[in-house]
Amino acid sequence: MKLLILNGPNLNLLGKREPGIYGDNSFEDYLKTLQEKYKELTIEYFQSNIEGELIDKLHEVGFTFDGVILNAAAYTHTSVGIADAIKAIETPVIEVHISNVHAREEFRNKSFIAPNVKGIITGFGLQSYELALHSFF
Q1: Alpha helices in the chain (DSSP H)
Q2: Does the annotation place 71 within a ligand binding site?
Q3: pLDDT at residue number 21
Q4: Model confidence over 1-50: pLDDT tens digits?
Q5: Is 99 annotated as a binding-site member?
Q6: Whole-angstrom distance, CA of residue 131 vs CA of residue 24
Q7: Helix 27-37 crosses helix 127-134 at what angle (to 10 degrees)?
């Protein structure tokens, strides 16, 4: 099984950025743990702060991968483009969030991508990614 973890803006700062909300582990360290634990899977990773690069990556893998785990970060609440890209591809996408977005600012309650994804996992820290991974078994 081939999965892509796709992270949006500012998630390159995990481990440094607001550790009270996002924890103190880098995503790269967490990814190594996932790859070691799930050796039977091919888990690829891509992060960008640029909306168009995220859309390009969805187009690139959207007909060949078995699943995408997407944390679009702030683009979740603003990007019709990413929502349309998810709708256009065949590969199922799980929306994930590290924090419980519904316990934060009101604008975070609206997800433009939610109507086009298989499901949403929010609020379990980095474990949200592993929970999403399990949804593909």
Answers
A1: 19-22, 27-37, 51-61, 80-88, 127-134
A2: yes
A3: 66
A4: 999 999 999 999 887 877 666 667 889 999 999 999 999 999 999 999 99
A5: yes
A6: 19
A7: 30
- The annotation status of 24 as a binding-site residue, yes or no, is no
Partners of 96 in beta bridges: 121
Interval 41-87: pLDDT, tens = 999 999 999 999 999 999 999 999 999 999 999 999 999 999 999 99
For residues 43 and 3, give the distance between their C-alpha atoms in angstroms, rounded to a whole number: 5
Please state, in angstroms and rounded to a whole number, the distance separating the CA atoms of residues 33 and 43. 11
Give the span between the Cα atoms of 78 and 42, in whole angstroms: 30
pLDDT digit string (tens) for 106-126? 767 789 999 999 999 999 999
- Residues involved in catalysis: 22, 97
Has 104 been labeled as part of a binding site?
no
**Domains defined along the chain, listed by start:** 2-134 (3.40.50.9100)
